[in-house]
């Protein structure tokens, strides 16, 4: 093993829409095929593969574990499942880095796929609403009425409102900003459908304090990317996007009953490591941020916890238009999980790579050289918080 | 007058396992049990190791002991959508995260009078029990405490 090289994203492939009834397996395979072609590589070059699943290691892997072998015919020396809730790309990158550093692989293919929309349409007929998979086995609140992600995530928004005086209209400013970005992204699900704070306020309650427009989309699709070393990436077809720094935080490090975790996320340790590795002094060095946005308040928490504004001031900050087009810190420039489409942190990751390659068209952030991409996920039995926070600095410099 | 036949349970069932069976049995006896350290008295819910002590194997230095069943609202929400068809007749319902006087957080619906504002954090509540003998379990609910 020689000295470490930087790890780079060399290829990106996305499937936003697929013919109805397309399996996760085929969406994953197609996204992977596109990523390989995007990198200017051949399927035969891929020697490692990571299957990105919200339920890493879950039995559902068997449903499509043949993406790499039977469908694509990737000659991988290894493949396995990585993922925890919405934390997929960040974890996959950390894992792949070890294999690339040690010369165990040259090109690692990372693929995630979802068919939540199709599944939700099917379970709707049985009277269910929302993503069926979110019915957690063993989850305390199930018989009591705390059923889906909105049930328990909304407590965090409610708590922030009670402690800091944040208002629903301020959360609405986040929805509006992300929708404005989506309206600059022809691939976004909500392209051409601008909204106002009034629309947000008038949208039906789902779980108060969350309106429908505080809740992320339910999607079908797949995203794939290829990781390799800096040296190899330079020979690939696209401008390399480098992983400049990574860090991780776990709410679980302080146990779930640490009550301040209801108004903040495990950002501090993740940020410290990622920014230190990337040689950044603070958020003023970030050109655009892809912040995990399963619900609006998660964005608000991160804006505060990373330091774009003081704790408790997130509401005022987003109200000023700071995160939308033309604002001081462009956030979720593709429309995010709220208005683009939902595949965990892969959505923001793909958008970050696109921005750094200057391929973002009308929504391109000028002089974009450094992007923060975050992930969020996992589950803690009750009171239902997502525990992991992943922080990745991507850059082209 | 004959007793009303309880309606069949159409909601998701609780997951009762070896770790929490005693807790669920406590609910049937109308006791809210908390997992308690024999050394320092710290109380937990659900079952846990005492974070203030080195623990014996499988937390054998701890046991389920009755708690006060009292606490304060820590955060609250109001469900307007029935994500599961079993809750169709219940919406809108108010669901609270309660900080028990002993420290742990627990959650359930607020029954009876509900706070008008979701910002009513700190409002005192106490546990009440909802029995489902045909299903073999009781559920804890919370009601506001009025002095
Ligand atoms: Zn103790």
Class based on secondary structure composition and strand pairing of chain B: mainly beta
Secondary structure: number of strands of chain B: 8
Number of strands of chain A: 11
Class derived from helix and strand content of chain A: alpha/beta
Classify the oligomer. Answer: heterodimer
How many helices of chain A in DSSP terms? 13
Explain this structure.
The complex is a heterodimer of chains A (397) and B (147). Chain A is an alpha/beta fold and 397 residues long. Chain A has 13 helices and 11 strands. In chain A, the strands form 2 sheets. In chain A, strands 3-2-4-7-1-8-11-10-9 form a 9-stranded mixed sheet. In chain A, strands 5-6 form a two-stranded antiparallel sheet. In chain A, a hairpin with a 1-residue loop joins strand 5 (205-208) and strand 6 (210-211). In chain A, helix 6 (168-182) packs across helix 10. The longest helix of chain A is centred in the middle third of the chain and has 16 residues, at 149-164. The mean pLDDT of chain A is 91. With 147 residues, chain B is mainly beta. In chain B, the strands form 2 sheets. Chain B has a 5-stranded antiparallel sheet, with helices on one face. In chain B, strands 2-1-3 form a 3-stranded antiparallel sheet. The longest helix of chain B is centred in the first third of the chain and has 8 residues, at 21-28. Chain B is globular and about 45 Å long. The relative contact order of chain B is 0.20. The model of chain B has no long low-confidence stretch (mean pLDDT 92). Chain A binds chain B through residues 126-130, 135, 137-148, 150-151, 154-156, 158-159, 161-163, 204-210, 255, 257, 259, 262, 381-383, and chain B through 11-15, 17, 44, 46, 51, 74-85, 87-88, 90, 92-93, 95, 97, 99, 103-109, 118-119, 121, 139, 141. Strand 5 (205-208) of chain A pairs antiparallel with strand 4 of chain B. The structure holds zinc ion. Residues 37, 39-40, 42, 50, 52-53 of chain B line the site of zinc ion. Zinc ion is lined by residues 37, 39-40, 42, 50, 52-53 of chain B.
């Amino acid at each position: 093993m020689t000295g470490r090289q930087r790890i780079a994203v060399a290829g990106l492939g996305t499937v936003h829409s697929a013919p109805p009834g397309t399996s996760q397996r085929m969406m994953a395979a197609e996204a992977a095929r596109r990523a390989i072609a995007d990198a200017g590589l051949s399927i035969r070059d891929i020697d490692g593969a990571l299957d990105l699943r919200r339920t890493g290691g879950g039995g559902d892997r068997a449903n499509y574990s043949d993406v790499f072998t039977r469908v694509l015919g990737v000659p991988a020396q290894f493949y396995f499942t990585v993922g925890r809730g919405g934390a997929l790309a960040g974890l996959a990158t950390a894992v792949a880095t070890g294999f690339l550093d040690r010369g165990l692989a040259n090109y690692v293919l990372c693929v995630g796929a979802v068919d939540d929309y199709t599944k939700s349409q099917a379970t709707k007929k049985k009277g269910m609403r929302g993503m069926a998979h979110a019915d957690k086995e063993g989850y305390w609140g199930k018989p009591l009425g705390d059923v889906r992600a909105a049930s328990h995530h909304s407590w965090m928004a409610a708590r922030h409102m009670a402690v800091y005086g944040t208002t629903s209209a301020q959360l609405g400013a986040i929805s509006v900003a992300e929708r404005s970005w989506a309206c600059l992204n022809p691939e976004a699900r909500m392209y051409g459908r601008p909204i106002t704070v009034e629309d947000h306020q008038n949208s039906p309650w789902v779980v108060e304090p969350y309106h429908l427009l505080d809740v992320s989309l339910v999607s079908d699709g797949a995203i794939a990317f290829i990781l390799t070393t800096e040296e190899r990436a330079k020979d690939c077809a696209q401008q390399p996007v480098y992983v400049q720094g990574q860090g991780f935080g776990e709410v679980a490090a302080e146990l779930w009953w640490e009550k301040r975790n209801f108004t903040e996320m495990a950002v501090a340790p993740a940020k410290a490591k990622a920014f230190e590795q990337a040689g950044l002094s603070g958020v003023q060095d970030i050109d655009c941020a892809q912040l995990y946005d399963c619900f609006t308040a998660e964005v608000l928490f991160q804006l505060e916890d990373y330091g774009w504004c003081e704790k408790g001031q997130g509401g005022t900050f987003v109200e000023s238009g700071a995160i939308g087009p033309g604002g001081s810190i462009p956030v979720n420039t593709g429309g995010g999980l709220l208005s683009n489409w939902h595949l965990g942190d892969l959505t923001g990751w793909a958008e970050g790579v696109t921005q750094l390659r200057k391929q973002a068209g009308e929504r391109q952030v000028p002089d974009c050289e450094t992007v923060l991409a975050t992930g969020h996920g996992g589950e803690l039995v009750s009171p239902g918080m997502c525990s992991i926070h992943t922080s990745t600095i991507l850059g082209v410099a | 007058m004959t007793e009303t036949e309880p309606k069949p349970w159409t909601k998701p069932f609780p997951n009762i396992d070896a770790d929490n069976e005693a807790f669920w049995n406590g609910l049937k006896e109308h006791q809210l049990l908390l997992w308690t350290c024999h050394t320092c008295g710290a109380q937990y819910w659900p079952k846990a190791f005492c974070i203030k002590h080195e623990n014996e194997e499988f937390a054998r230095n701890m046991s389920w002991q009755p708690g006060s069943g009292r606490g304060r609202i820590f955060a609250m929400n109001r469900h307007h959508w029935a994500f599961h068809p079993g809750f169709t007749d219940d919406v809108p319902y108010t669901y609270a995260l309660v900080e028990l006087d002993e420290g742990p957080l627990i959650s359930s619906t607020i029954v009876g009078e509900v706070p008008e504002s979701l910002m009513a954090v700190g409002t005192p509540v106490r546990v009440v029990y909802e029995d489902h003998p045909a299903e073999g379990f009781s559920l804890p609910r919370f009601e506001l405490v009025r002095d």
